């Protein structure tokens, strides 16, 4: 290697080392407690120009020392731990449940069977934003048959989690982004809003524009706990023994009409001794709900997840047979 190349290599290496040294001292300056800097000044270190690490800048090359002095004197340069403005510390969280109070109405939320029983239409003066406005359109079949061998009676029902925090989001929109915009309406004959018993109005209207009935979800845990069994028994309780009428059934019909959706998807996976022989009562509950909805001039539909047998026990069969034929 020639002398010229050696000199050139040495200059480049020296520049890299100088930059590394300056950067290292700036990092140390951010990590050192402020009292250490004060102590250095009291012991006489302040008599000479110092860098941000409290070290003598005269030990640095002239250009590096000048840069350190300029950066130390510039009030606009802050450490990463010091936000430049208050907005950086007030970034809105993704989940609106932790956001400040707002006048924007929230989605409908039910924590218990009692919440459903206590629901009254006249007590919902601010719930207009939660109500659908688009009636169910007639489905228009396409003129082109894609598969002539397909069974024209076959139907496809989708169960879609469109908004996992529906009960915490504003009905009229917000700055959250965790929402699934379903766009396969042409392929489904009906759909379930898997997020809760009351579909949000934007989803209802989108489904209805495409001629797709939409159902809310009535969810009963995969469980054999006594608490969950009692929850289901309370849900399907009669007004009086053997009356054949059900208070929560009437509420379900009223809520479907008020908010403008088409029925309910029942996911019933709770089992246990307390539910034995309750399959028929569940069936009568659904029949009564549909009958009561007709009396309101608002017929509704049910979709049923195949888990509860007609005997009341949990039994998956993926079809209709001896155990599920009455459900």
From TrEMBL:
Source organism superkingdom: Bacteria
Record keywords, A-Z: Hydrolase
InterPro entries: ENGase, TIM_ENGase
Example of a GO cellular component annotation carried by this entry: cytosol
Polar residues bias (residue ranges): 36-60, 79-88
Domain Cytosolic endo-beta-N-acetylglucosaminidase TIM barrel: 169-319
MF terms (GO), sorted A to Z: mannosyl-glycoprotein endo-beta-N-acetylglucosaminidase activity
Matching Pfam families: Glyco_hydro_85
Disordered: region residues: 36-106
Protein's name according to its UniProt entry: Glycosyl hydrolase family LPXTG cell wall surface protein
Taxonomic source organism: Streptococcus acidominimus
Lineage: Bacteria, Bacillati, Bacillota, Bacilli, Lactobacillales
């Amino acid at each position: 290697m020639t002398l010229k190349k050696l000199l050139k290599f040495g200059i480049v290496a020296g520049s890299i080392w100088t930059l590394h040294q300056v950067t290292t001292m700036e990092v140390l300056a951010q990590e050192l407690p402020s009292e250490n800097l004060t102590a250095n000044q009291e012991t006489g270190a302040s008599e000479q120009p110092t860098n941000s690490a409290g070290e003598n800048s005269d030990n640095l090359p002239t250009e590096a020392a000048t840069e350190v002095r300029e950066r130390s004197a510039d009030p606009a340069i802050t450490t990463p731990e010091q936000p430049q403005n208050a907005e950086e510390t007030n970034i809105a969280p993704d989940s609106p449940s932790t956001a400040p109070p707002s006048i924007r109405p929230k989605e409908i939320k039910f924590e218990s069977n009692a919440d459903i029983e206590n629901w009254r239409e006249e007590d919902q003066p601010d719930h207009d934003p939660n109500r659908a406005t688009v009636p169910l359109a007639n489905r228009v079949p396409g003129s082109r048959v894609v598969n002539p061998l397909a069974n024209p009676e076959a139907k496809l029902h989708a169960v879609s989690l469109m908004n996992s925090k529906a009960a915490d989001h504003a009905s009229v929109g917000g700055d959250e982004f965790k929402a699934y915009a379903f766009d396969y309406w042409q392929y489904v004959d009906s759909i379930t809003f898997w997020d809760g018993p009351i579909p949000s109005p934007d989803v209802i209207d989108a489904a209805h524009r495409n001629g797709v009935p939409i159902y809310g979800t009535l969810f009963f845990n995969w469980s054999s706990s006594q608490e969950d069994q009692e929850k289901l028994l309370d849900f399907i309780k009669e007004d009086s023994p053997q009356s054949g009428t059900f208070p929560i059934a009437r509420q379900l019909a009223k809520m479907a009409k008020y908010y403008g959706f088409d029925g309910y998807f029942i996911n019933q996976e709770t089992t246990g001794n307390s539910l034995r022989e309750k399959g028929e009562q569940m069936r009568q509950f659904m029949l009564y709900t549909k009958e009561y909805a007709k009396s309101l001039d608002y017929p509704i539909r049910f979709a049923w997840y195949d888990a509860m047998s007609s005997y009341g026990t949990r039994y998956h069969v993926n079809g209709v047979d001896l155990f599920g034929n009455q459900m």
